[in-house]
Automatic annotation (TrEMBL):
UniProt biased composition (Basic and acidic residues): 363-374, 387-396
Positions annotated to bind a 1,2-diacyl-sn-glycero-3-phospho-(1'-sn-glycerol): 143
GO BP field: lipoprotein biosynthetic process
Chain's role: Catalyzes the transfer of the diacylglyceryl group from phosphatidylglycerol to the sulfhydryl group of the N-terminal cysteine of a prolipoprotein, the first step in the formation of mature lipoproteins.
EC number in record: 2.5.1.145
Transmembrane segments: 23-42, 54-75, 95-117, 124-142, 186-203, 215-231, 251-270
InterPro entries: Lgt
Name of the featured protein: Phosphatidylglycerol--prolipoprotein diacylglyceryl transferase
Location relative to the cell: Cell membrane
GO molecular function: phosphatidylglycerol-prolipoprotein diacylglyceryl transferase activity
Top-level EC class as recorded in UniProt: transferase
Species of provenance: Arthrobacter pigmenti
């Protein structure tokens, strides 16, 4: 069953206090989005071949720059609340009241990311590709802060998913009747962004978008949705007329960024066609292997060679692990074991030598013997037994 409307949370839900501190849900949504974005970026950066710790080092620069840039863009694109006749300059730093422009956040955040990437010795384009899906995911989560603040909704609608706004809320349009429903533009953008995250990840897995292409694809996708979502909104904004068409500033900005992103994406695709993916590190800044890694790599090869040598000598000894390479079984070997293994030998005519009687001991002759000598026979004198190994050795 589809609900008749989407309720807004009570105004008291917008914030709560812990001792002397006031916690705003809008700020928590922004922070939650940032944390989730960094986790996704860290996982992608590791898959790119980079050190995941670098993501947090870059974030120290990118996040504060992004927040400041987003706030400045909002202030100057909606100046009446701050510089107008009834404006209040003290509201400029009150980010928790709402008002972060994505274009300023991306632009100044990119400056912070560039500083962090230079310090970490990694390429900004590679970092931007890794971060793009995470940034879109952060935007999807952050948009729910607008729901808690009951702000940035769209025009009136009779659709069953229309958004309720408290009639006594400061953001309720004075010309609207109580009970009027509005387009939940925060929800439209959140869902649009979530679909975009899945799409970007799938395309990256399929095509391996690098060299800045993932970032510009993100920019193109986001702005394509922002154009129609922004056109639904009725909150105060700067209006600009171009070619006789009057639209909100963010609509024109979205169109401009969309066109630029598509052009750059196509250019980079053609430029990088047939080229291998470059390292995420700047030239000369790739981490050098440690002594332990080098020693481990050096020891691995001899070990492998030794195993091959052992296998080779075992095979040359008739695949009998208890034999030496020359076919002798060590003295003192258990007679029962020798009986199982057996001893093979050949003379010049290829006659096989059978194992001797183990009841009187065991001897193996590797010379050109024409018969097997039994230790119990008359020819098995102690002197002859002692001489046989030397005769065999002299004929090797």
């Amino acid at each position: 069953m589809i609900p008749a409307s989407i309720p807004s949370p009570p105004a008291e839900w917008a914030s709560f206090t812990i001792g002397p501190a006031t916690i705003h849900l809008y700020a928590l949504c922004i922070l939650a989005g940032i944390v989730v974005a960094l986790l996704l970026t860290s996982a992608r950066w590791k898959r790119f071949g980079g050190n995941p710790d670098v993501v947090w080092d870059v974030a120290i620069w990118a996040v504060p720059f992004g927040l400041i840039g987003g706030r400045l863009y909002h202030v100057f694109s909606s100046p009446d609340a701050y510089f107008g006749p009834d404006g209040d300059l003290s509201r400029i730093p009150r980010i928790w009241e709402g008002g972060l422009g994505i274009w300023g956040a991306v632009a100044l955040g990119a400056v912070g990311a560039w500083i962090g990437c230079r310090r970490a010795g990694v390429r900004l384009s590679a970092f931007a590709d890794a971060a793009a899906p995470g940034v879109l995911l952060a935007q999807a989560i952050g948009r729910w802060g607008n729901w808690f603040n009951q702000e940035l909704f769209g025009a009136p609608t009779e659709l069953p998913w229309g958004l309720e706004i408290d009639a006594d809320h400061p953001n309720f349009p004075p010309e609207a009747d109580p009970g009027t429903l509005f387009h939940p533009t925060f929800l439209y953008e959140s869902l649009w962004n979530l679909v975009g995250v899945a799409l970007l990840l799938l395309l990256d897995r399929r095509f391996g978008l690098r060299g800045g292409r993932m970032f510009w694809l993100y920019a193109a996708y986001y702005t394509a949705g922002r154009v129609w979502i922004e056109a639904l909104r009725i909150d105060d904004a700067e209006l600009i007329t171009i070619f006789g068409l009057t639209q909100r500033l963010n609509v024109w900005t979205s169109i401009l960024v969309l066109v630029a992103a598509l052009v750059i994406f196509v250019y980079l695709t053609m430029k990088q066609r047939g080229t291998d993916q470059t390292s995420v590190y700047l030239p000369g800044r790739a981490p050098k292997p440690t002594e332990g890694d080098a020693a481990g790599g050096a020891s691995a090869a001899p070990s492998s060679s030794s195993e091959e040598g052992i296998a080779g000598s075992t095979g040359s000894a008739g695949k009998n692990p208890d034999k030496h390479a020359d076919g002798e079984i060590p003295a003192g070997e258990d007679s029962a074991k020798a009986e199982t293994i057996g001893v093979e030998g050949r003379n010049g005519t290829g006659t096989e030598v059978q194992p001797s009687d183990t009841s009187a001991g065991m001897r193996t002759d590797h010379g050109n013997l024409s018969e097997t000598k039994d230790a119990s026979g008359p020819s098995a004198s102690p002197d002859a037994a002692a001489e046989e190994p030397r005769e065999s050795d002299s004929r090797k």
